[in-house]
Amino acid sequence: MSTPQAEPSFRQSVDLMFNRAAALMDLSPGLEQKIRVCNSTYTVRFGVRLRGQMQTFTGYRSVHSEHMEPVKGGIRYSLAVNQDEVEALAALMSYKCALVEAPFGGSKGGLCIDPRAWDEDELEQITRRFAYELIKRDLIDPSQNVPAPDMGTGEREMAWIADQYARMNTSDINARACVTGKPLNFGGISGRVEATGRGIQYALREFFRHPEDVAAAGLAGSLDGKRVIVQGLGNVGYHAAKFLQAEDGARIIGVVEHDGGIFCDTGIDIEALRNWILRHGGVKGFADGEFIENGAKLLEADCDILIPAALEGVINLSNAQKVQAPLIIEAANGPITSGADQILRAKGTVIIPDLYANAGGVTVSYFEWVKNLGHIRFGRLQRRQEEARHQLVIDELDRLSVALGDAWSLSPGFKEKYLRGADELELVRSGLDDTMRTAYQAMREVWHARADVEDLRTAGFIVAIEKIAASYRSKGL
Ligand code: NAD
Predict the structure, then answer these.
(1) Phi, psi of 40, deg, nearest 5
(2) CA-closest residue to ligand 1 atom 41
(3) Residues belonging to the active site
(4) Domain spans of the chain, in order of start
(5) Cα(340)–Cα(325) distance, rounded to whole angstroms?
(6) CA-to-CA distance for 64 and 107, rounded, in angstroms?
(7) Are 202 and 433 a contacting pair, CB within 8 Å?
């Protein structure tokens, strides 16, 4: 009797994917090992007096690679947080930052907590205490280690962390750069909240610009009309689904949430479903679609694009064979285990891997960090000057239009569109789009140029590892 193949842990899964790529590279064994291993993980257990008694919490901050500093990576609040998970996520951050050329090493943090079980005041006390423990060990610091939001955290938690850091470092002029994903009025940047979902949209747009790649997934045409299933309508999943539906004509036919799934072949109104979830805590009861008790079954449904945007390990040895989507884009970190990855590759499924797909968040975090260090909003210096120069062109065109009479005039709306200088949001989106396009092209070049590289994930790892290796070599390691 053959024993069933065991599922590796999340960290082992990331390492196995790393190993597949490293085996095709010419790295010395020492350097390969240096890049793969997680440098350090700090575990903290702290008490906070809440509801009349001392409550103890466990938190982690892992630093995977310090080939560049600061190291960067989100802080997750979930009961499933553990050392293995935080180390896997920190490793992915190193590869992600390298791939999209964000000048950071990789890190990640987590607090083992159910954020829904505590009210806002209590969460603030817990967050400030966790931040205090990390700050005093330089595990939150503008030049050493810069967290960001992840599952279960958002702008609110980042503001508490930034304020805690400022209180403990009163003379640090760069204090606000100690964390990214802050509210706009507290040192944040326009477009950070939407960034990861927006990055998913830009990644898919870039994929669909290459008919050869689209054909590899057995698809054709553009994003318009493609049937999409999304798992997790949180920050990342909601923004990705919303933009794909509103701006690219994709049809979101399924949404999987923690309490079940919603299916509607003619398309789900994402805005309406999101509002329902915010009011009722889940998708159950939403009228415009069929409720599916076992939501995870929707991962196996017939669709063109599957977007797992919730948590890791959801496509694994138990369901990979049944997944019908020909194209999967990993909005979450590690949604496909290494065993499932192997099964899907054998079936010909094209996977746009997490280390590339969800890099929009860290890319815009990078812009926010630079903005904080520069102490100035992007576009503030040049916007009006740009408008003045555009006005010169408009004046000339107006003169031409008068001279030509009825024979020629400017298109409606052109003047207003052309005159307006770019604001911060437009600049951020432009920088994000450029980053997503450039990184995809780097990956696909390796994918198509090398006969021994079968998939985008291996190609992405090769590009990332090469950059990290070059950085270590320059340091003389
Ligand atoms: P979030 O907490 O905003 O949303 C997660 C969503 O998933 C929630 O709506 C939750 O209800 C849902 N969910 C939880 N368990 C589920 C289950 N078993 N089945 C279906 N849905 C479930 O988190 P997020 O920030 O959107 O992060 C989602 C994923 O994206 C994570 O893997 C995270 O690491 C990754 N990611 C996030 C960012 C970012 O900027 N927030 C950046 C890069 C990667």
Answers:
(1) -160, 155
(2) 150
(3) 108
(4) 41-186, 218-348
(5) 14
(6) 6
(7) yes
Q: Which atom of ligand 1 is nearest the CA belonging to 234?
A: 4
**Consecutive H or E run containing 41:** strand 40-50
Taking a C-beta distance cutoff of 8 angstroms, is the pair 117, 78 a contact? no
Residue 428, both tokens: 């951020």
CATH of 41-186, one of 3.40.50.150, 3.40.50.10860, 3.40.50.10160, 3.40.309.10: 3.40.50.10860
Q: What tens digit of pLDDT does each residue of 386-396 get? A: 999 999 999 99
Q: Contact 165/135 with Cβ under 8 angstroms? A: yes
> Which residues form ligand 1's pocket by a CB distance below 6 Å?
149-152, 196, 231-237, 256-258, 309-311, 331-333, 358, 361
- Residue 71 near residue 107, CB atoms below 8 Å: yes
Spell out, as residue ranges, where the chain has pLDDT lower than 50. Answer: 1-3
- Tens-place pLDDT, residues 258-297: 999 999 999 999 999 999 999 999 999 999 999 999 999 9
Residue 361's nearest CA partner among 256, 436, 459, 310 is: 436
Residue 3 has a pLDDT of: 45
Structure tokens at 103: 């000048």
Angle at 34 between CA 33 and CA 39, to 5 degrees: 120
* Residue 245 C-beta-side C-alpha neighbours within 13 Å: 21
Q: Encoding tokens for residue 305?
A: 């694009």
Q: Do domains 41-186 and 218-348 have the same CATH topology?
A: yes
CA-based nearest residue to 347, from 208, 231, 217, 452? 217
2.60.40.150, 3.40.50.12280, 3.10.129.10, 3.40.50.720: CATH of 218-348: 3.40.50.720
**Rounded distance, CA 474 to CA 477, Å?**
7
Minimum CA distance residue for ligand 1 atom 17: 258
